[in-house]
Design a protein that fits this description.
Length: 306
Amino acid sequence: MRSLISILDLSVQEIDELIDTACDIIENPAKYAEACRGRKLATLFFEPSTRTRLSFEAAMYELGGNVLSVSSADSSSAAKGESVADTAKTVSCYADIIAMRHPKEGAPYVAAKNASVPVINAGDGGHNHPTQTLADLLTIRREKGRFDGLTVGFCGDLKFGRTVHSLIGAMARYPDVRFVLISPEELKLPSYEKDVLKQKNIPYVQTTDLMEVMPELDILYMTRVQRERFFNEEDYLRLKDSYVLEPKKLAAARQDLSIMHPLPRVNEISVAIDSDPRACYFKQVLNGKYIRMALILKLLKEAGRI
Ligand code: CP
């Protein structure tokens, strides 16, 4: 049974095909309006979410399907101690496909091993968030028209930011991509992620100074400091406003810069940036629905359920 746990579960060719399908859905929504009639998506969210859960649910409705939803850990039998494996076996009896978010790294993998329907990782702890990456890639394709040859700056919490880990993994497969890693010392990209870049000879630099590197960037991917992953509040309070993007800080930026953020934002992008034509983060939100429609279609087709 094909599931999606890491973005690397998809080949570059499959990602291209998903993006092409998403673009066709954008152009021809009526063609897909009945594609999942009679099928059910279960969204199992054991951690808070606005975009991912609602975009999955909107995606399934726009494909003509239905949705079963667990929107918090305390509203399911997980609160009584039920295991992820038993939850997955149970929900497989009711739904054709599952999207799961969980605070524990690896929980969607365990679910996929025990489910009899496809499981999609909708974010596991500080580990991975492959469908956010698909939304990011669709956004980059629509904004830049390509993936190769781009200089991508990641700024903020690169230690705990699962969207950063997944997008670096995905972009590292395209030629001539270069990464600029901008973070406080305490929130640097984990060594195991950098080791992969080193093994593949992919150029990257690390810095604490956003302004110094701003003119080089084709994409600036801002992230929030992940309060929920900190062991103590003091450290979070000290680091949370390390980077706040304001209009004056874009003075040296390229005119064709794309400013991205997986959202939610807290304080790291001023609302005054929202009206700048370079701001792409609400485009990412909308693209997230279309690419999740494409993914649901792909996995249900491969499972023989549509
Ligand atoms: N980008 C993202 O995962 O947002 P939510 O936490 O609101 O789902």
